[in-house]
Amino acid sequence: MIPAILALADGTIFRGTSIGAEGETVGEVVFNTAITGYQEILTDPSYARQIVTLTYPHIGNTGVNAVDEESDKVQAAGLVIRDLPRLASNWRSSESLDAYLRRHGIVAIADLDTRALTRLLRDKGAQGGCILAGTDVSAERALAAARAFPGLAGMDLAKVVSTPRQYRFDAGSYDLDRTAFASVPGKHHVVAYDFGVKKNILRMLVDRGCALTVVPAQTPISDVLALKPDGVFLSNGPGDPEPCDYAIAAARETIKRKIPLFGICLGHQIMGLAVGAKTLKMKFGHHGANHPVKDHDDGRVLVTSQNHGFAVDPATLPANTRVTHTSLFDGSLQGFALTDAPAFCFQGHPEASPGPHDIGYLFDRFVSSMVEAQSVRAA
Amino acid sequence: MPKRTDIKSILVIGAGPIVIGQACEFDYSGAQACKALKAEGFRVILVNSNPATIMTDPETADAVYIEPINRATVEAIIAKEKPDALLPTMGGQTALNCALDLADAGILDKYKVELIGASRDAIRMAEDRELFRVAMKEIGLECPRAEVAKTFEQAVEIQARVGYPTIIRPSFTLGGSGGGIAYNREEFEEIIKRGLDLSPVHEVLVEESVLGWKEFEMEVVRDKADNCIIVCSIENFDPMGVHTGDSITVAPAQTLTDKEYQRLRDASIAVLRKIGVDTGGSNVQFGINAENGRVVVIEMNPRVSRSSALASKATGFPIAKIAAKLAVGYTLDELRNDITGGATPASFEPTIDYVVTKIPRFAFEKFPAADARLTTQMKSVGEVMAIGRTFQESLQKALRGLETGKDGLNPTGLDFANADDIATLKRELREPKPDRIFYVADAFRAGMSLDEIFALTHIDRWFLDQIGELIEIETAVKTAGLNGLDAAQMRSLKRKGFSDARLAALLDTNEAAVRTLRRAFNVRPVYKRVDSCAAEFATTTAYLYSTYEEQCEAAPTARDKIMVLGGGPNRIGQGIEFDYCCVHAALALREDGFETIMVNCNPETVSTDYDTSDRLYFEPLTLEDVLEIIDVEKPKGVIVQYGGQTPLKLARALEANGAPVIGTTPDSIDLAEDRERFQQMVQKLGLTQPPNRTARTPDEALAHARDIGYPLVVRPSYVLGGRAMEVVHSDADLKRYITDAVKVSNDSPVLLDRFLDNAVEVDVDIVADAQGNVLIGGIMEHIEEAGVHSGDSSCSLPPYSLSEKVQNELRAQVTRMARELKVVGLMNTQFAITQENGDSTIYILEVNPRASRTVPFVCKATGVSLAKIAARCMAGRSLAEQGATQEVIPEYFSVKEAIFPFAKFQNVDPILGPEMRSTGEVMGVGRSFGAAFARAHEAANISAPKVGKVFVSVRDADKPRLLPVAQDLIRRGYSLIATAGTHAYLVEHGVACEYINKVLEGRPHILDAIKNGEIVFIVNTTEGRQAIADSFSIRREALQQRITYSTTVAGARALVHSLDFRSGGEVYSLQELHRELTA
Q: Cβ distance B778 to B858 under 8 Å?
């Protein structure tokens, strides 16, 4: 048993055991209440610089596999759990979670009262933290590191986690029955801005006949336009949307040119800023796979995956926008569309992974908007 | 979409008596639904034949009918009450079947009653296996390959296509009854024949085996706007092949990745949409091939189920309440979840941060002849649920909460050096019985590898390794010894869920020593809250479970508190009646301003609804767990006399550890239970007991027997429900009993009582206050003679044959005993009354200064809430203060009839005897005893024999009593047929009777006649082991052929007498009846 310690900026210390790499990690400590999907969460670039606490006590039950990754590496800064079972069991499992964490050099801690930690984060808000794992777990050192963490406000992480170079993406969703990724011919050329994109977004676009070109976060819109896209996609990603001026400018230009535009999560916030709305930092954000959202078009309730610490303030939306989705949870803005351009966006995660598939129809809506735009152009 | 305003009144159908497969979970759901509908302003009309339910309390609905749940009666209720709608999804299969029957017969159309919650088509599609399979195919979901057979020949044909092993599932039967797994042709034929017979539509599904596949359940809620949420996923520890009601189950699912889980989520929602469950809760079951992940849909229930009760308790999401509101028009986005004080909407899918384990409880000890191997037919009678932060913790808590003498993964006692024992071990792993999990633990102890155990059990390796780890820890603890334990190790052991008692066994010390050491190390549990949101929001609801962590959320108040200890898992002899009492105690004391605290671990009950009491501790009822809660809460009083034997067993130890037990003292309870002390008291009061002795050695037993004289009732001391109780007629009988049936020793003495033949048995329930005042709750005269367990006999309130003089004497005797025992609270007394030359002698059989099974029946019959009054007495209020001084004797009759599980257990003799075997009860009300009895029989589904041939065969002592019954039958147009002895007696007394051979006398014999459908009614009494064995096949065949039978003459007499009152007659709501009492 290698000891580990988690220190929070408010001075709270939790002691536990190390289940990943030895060493030190700092980040914003957040929690996620999803019961399944730890591998997807760990590899979600939106978790960059965040130490994720998973509230479900047993994590690692199904090990990890080569398929359920949302990016090519573990993105979370650290992992906090109650219990790592010593045996993983699942027909798709190829490696244990702890081996995977060590292989990716991720510091992680188990055997602490994660419910107490969650209640603290709920009451005091997300805050800086540090996990120390190894033989030397000095509380002072951990506390100092936790307090030195500057926080995510004002931090532009999108450009940090983005792809360094443009690439094509053509694999569809994973089919559990055929144990293969779907292959669908691309009909609509979509350029996806990568601010930390989750692979499942790209897969779900491919499923619907999109041929994807993924571009780095800071790609000028002129370069994108040169690719003659049928639609532009603004991805999810970590950090504060406000400093991402390059992305905001790109979104604004796309809207102006009436090119179909779809944004998810950070992409939603960027679109909000592009149309002149304001964003704000939430107390502890939405991090779970059980959040009900109301679709104002048909009144239906969709259970959605959520993972955001910043939000668009609906009071600041301009007149040419229409609120399409609202959280039934706290009434916060979940989605809006422009009334004068084929652009819409969603705060939660229609790509799920992890989470329910209820709101996957937004991808269809994006494809429809491209089809419509094409027919308008053709006419 | 808000509440519908076009409907004003709603009929809710309950689930009827507790039977295997349908227990008090439907009281929990039904009561919740009725309360929710009432709160919404609807007029709620309820029909349920089960008087032991909270839902049949007059406060639950505007009109409560404790009447038979059948087409005719419910039609009468509809005609009288004219409800606008019928909600059929809260009363299990019984309610669905009844609703379907009403719809098919055109009754709903005739009275313009709308089915809400589930449509007729949806019910049919979900219930009819073939329609269901086709529907699943249409939405691209696979079912196991299967075809429906209507005849034996068809079944054989289909079997050839799906191969062995073959699963057989009869359509429309409760809890899969009549189904099974056939490994060969012989078994196949037997199960098919049985299944075709038991299915009301004579149809069975012959199905491809998915034995050994992983099994999952999803609890889904849907509203009329097609919004769906998953309340909970459940993974079965026992793979496919064991009925989910008999499986250990775990929530949430443990071994699915998100992709796999979401696939099940999508599929279950698609199933609801396809079946067309418009609103409400449903349960969808899946099988998953562990090798490749192939998913098959097993079945779905378009209604609230046992699993939804479990899911509600496991998550804190009140499925039945929400489902009821959805049925009247609300949508999920319009409702809030109460558990977070409304901070979360009802559309928020619950997420949990703990592990829930459910373990079923069985009663095979009551049915030694039954096959205890678990199959697709449900056999368990109750369940325990436990919550822990880890699977290991919740499993070990559940094991000790089960109350089967285990305090963890106790060894089975096999000798691993012995090859036969190893063979036994392997068989027990491969062909599960209720105790398989202990064999899994033993398999690790025996050094078997994970893969070997997996190959034998197909239990997922994840669960197996969790158990394997616990066994490794046990071994290490044993090696280290008590002195080797430090605080950190103790803490780590407690975090794994080890009980003090289990550690004591491993460390070769006693529980108290471990507790002392643990407390010295300051290793104490904390209490976490069940909040449906994994702490994302604060909750004010105090639904708590213990665990060993850093932070405690109990936040006890400084109010005056009363703690009620519940009854734990249901079993035969201790079921819903005790939960009823516990709930009433909590409600009464809450009304009086106390903070009430409930401790219980039975997920099926109303007592474990988080809003029944101010605070709910979902915890095992062991000394360790209860003491820790008392330590945190510091209640002013603890009520131990309401939950049956479970809390009573703890009473003395709780008191010794300083717990403030209120009401009758544990010493008085002990006095009543202790034969010798009790005998002294009876003698002191000058009362009469049947001659009796206590024996501590076999020789002593024989000597005592000769003193008292045969026949004798023998039983071990300290048992509830007449476990192992027998009537013996000779030395040989007694010798066999004390060598085979029970072990006699100093620690477990055997009680011998003179058996009073042909005595009338009577139950009297009373309440006494601290001032020594006594309120007579009710005098219940049994229909069957003394000798049949009181829980198994039917009874009438008021008595139908006892003289006023005798009744007054009974009142006087119970009052004296209550005062002598200083009873504060409830007391039940059982008497036997013999008649000789016009003189009655009253014998006291037993006194139970605690809640009894009859309390809810008395409450329903008299409108007097005995359990509430008694709870208030315990809390210090006198009867006079409560205005409860006058016994209420209704002018109408109420009859309680017991319900038995014999149809579920092949080879079990349905003869009534001193050992209790009934699982539930029904009640019938009428203006005369006969009318009430007839109604109770109708509710019990005992059909009135059509005019035809009656087979009579009774023991010699019963022959004179049979005579008037026989004459009555003849008068009614029946003819009689009897075997030699009875035939001769009847003919001799001038009663016309046909002769037939006994089975051993050559053919054609009585069994042939029964099988040929020549017999309409059987009266068969017998005594002595050999005679009982000889006539077994007659009773069993009667059961098989669904021929009405009586195994007592008194029962037969009452049945024949009640034939005048069969079918039809008025229906009375409880409210109407109770109004008569106060008028």
A: yes
A84-129 pLDDT, tens digit per residue, is 999 999 999 999 999 999 999 999 999 999 999 999 999 998 899 9
Same domain for B346 and B463, yes or no, is no
* Residues of A assigned a catalytic role: 265, 349, 351
Q: Considering only CA atoms, which of A222, A264, A286, A277 is closest in space to residue A362?
A: A264
| % residues pLDDT > 90 (chain A) | 93
Q: What is the average per-residue pLDDT within B792-797?
A: 96
Mean pLDDT of the residues in chain B: 94
A115 vs B537: CB contact, 8 Å cut-off? no
* CB neighbours of residue A326 within 10 Å: 20
Quick one: angle between helices B450-457 and B436-445, nearest 10? 160
**Which pair of structure tokens corresponds to residue B630?**
């008392």
Instruction: Give CA–CA dist A353/A199, Å, rounded.
Output: 9
CA-nearest of A213, A208, A212 to A184 is: A208
- Residues B731, B806, single domain; the answer is no
Omega within 30 of 0 (cis) for the link into B68: no
Calpha distance A311→B841 (Å, rounded): 84
* pLDDT at residue A154, rounded to an integer: 87
| Exposure on the CB side of residue A242, measured as CA atoms within 13 A | 15
- CA-CA distance, A334 to A320, in Å (whole number)? 17
Q: Which residues of A touch B261 (CB under 8 A)?
A: 35-36
State the total domains in chain B.
8
Q: CB–CB of A272/A345 below 8 Å?
A: yes
Amino acid at B140: G
ipTM for the complex shown: 0.97
Closest-CA residue of A relative to B142 is A177
The C-alpha atoms of residue A64 and residue A100 are separated, in whole angstroms, by 7
Asked whether residue B220 falls in the same domain as residue B298, the answer is yes
Tokens of B849: 């200064």
Roughly what angle, to the nearest 10 degrees, separates helices B511-520 and B500-507? 110
In a domain, B368, yes or no: no
Integer angstrom CA distances of residue B16 from B643, B748, B916: 22, 38, 20
| B374 belongs to a structural domain | no
Domains of chain A: 3-148 (3.50.30.20), 158-378 (3.40.50.880)
The answer on pLDDT for B787 being more than 90 is no
B861 assigned to some structural domain:
yes
Range of the domain at B303: 214-358
Residue B1036 inside a domain? The answer is: yes
Q: pLDDT of B706-763, one tens digit each?
A: 999 898 988 887 665 556 778 888 898 898 888 876 777 777 788 898 988 889 999 9
CATH number at residue B577: 3.40.50.20
Nearest CA in chain B to A56: B353
Backbone φ, ψ for residue B963 (5° rounding): -50, -55
What global pTM score does this model have? 0.95
- Rounded Cα gap, residues B427 and B422, in angstroms: 9
- B835 and B897 in a single domain? The answer is yes
Does B428 share its domain with B327?
no
Helix (H, G, I), strand (E, B) or coil at B501: helix
Q: Does B1025 score more than 80 pLDDT?
A: no
pLDDT, position B719: 61
Among A91, A100, A295, which would you mutate to test the B interface (most chain B Cβ atoms within 10 Å of its Cβ)?
Answer: A91
CA distance A34 to A290: 7
Q: For residue range B597-609, what is the model confidence (pLDDT) as tens digits?
A: 999 999 999 999 9
| Distance between B779 CA and the closest CA of chain A, angstroms | 54
Which carries the bigger pLDDT value, residue A287 or residue B256?
Answer: B256
Band of pLDDT at residue B785, cut at 50, 70 and 90? confident
Contacts of B254 in chain A (CB under 8 A): 58, 61
Nearest to B405 by CA among B438, B427, B451: B438
pLDDT, position B35: 96
